[in-house]
Structures are given as structure tokens and as C-alpha cells.
Amino acid sequence: MTDQCMSDASLWSPSRTGVWRRDNAQGRELADALEKRMTETNNPSLLGWTVKAIIDGGIYDGVEVGFCQRVAERAIYRAEVA
User: Fold this and answer.
1) What is the DSSP string of 26-65?
2) Inter-residue contact 46 to 38 (CB < 8 Å)
3) pTM of the model
4) pLDDT exceeds cutoff 50 at 9
5) What was the pLDDT predicted at 22?
6) How far, rounded to the nearest angstrom, does the alpha carbon of residue 66 sit from its chain's CA centroid?
7) Contact 17, 23 (CB under 8 A)
8) Which of 25, 27, 40, 62 could form a disulfide linkage to 20, CB 3.0–4.6 angstroms apart?
């Protein structure tokens, strides 16, 4: 993920625009970046830590919806091709 949204200090600290479409797209991009990082580091537990950080943050808005949507889309796609 980007240095902004995934560092040792914080797994989830996105910049919010307040515009649903843009925030949702950012969430999808963050999910893509997390998937790439999990693959590169062979560390799928990063997803759990990221979800925990989202929950601890107490905000569920466009960024979080986009993130969860992308993760769900990838899970469904992989189930269909398996």
C-alpha cells in the first residue's frame, strides 16, 4: 500500500475527499495495493490487521465501502475460476 495509508504506525489512514465516488475509488485502490503487498511479502495476515484498523477507526464511509467491495469482488472472482 502507499506509505500514506500503510506504515508501521498506521495500517489505515486514508485521505478523505468527502466525495463518495472519489473515496470509493480510493478504497478500491487501497485494496489493490494491499493485495499486491500481501503477495510480495507472502503475508495474508495484513488483511486482518487492516480490517482491525478500519474497525478501530470507527468510520465506515466511501473509502471503506470501496475497499470491502474490491476484496469481495476478488474473492468471488477467484471462487468462480477455481
Assistant:
1) HHHHHHHHHHHHHHHHT-THHHHHHHHHHHHHT--SHHHH
2) yes
3) 0.83
4) no
5) 98
6) 8
7) yes
8) 62
CA dihedral for 39, 43, 48, 52, sign (positive or negative): negative
The C-alpha cell at 4 is 500514506
Do residues 27 and 62 make contact, with C-beta atoms less than 8 angstroms apart?
yes
- State the cell numbers at 53: 484498523
> Greatest CA separation found in the chain?
38
Residue type, 40: E
Helix (H), strand (E) at residue 69: helix 62-81
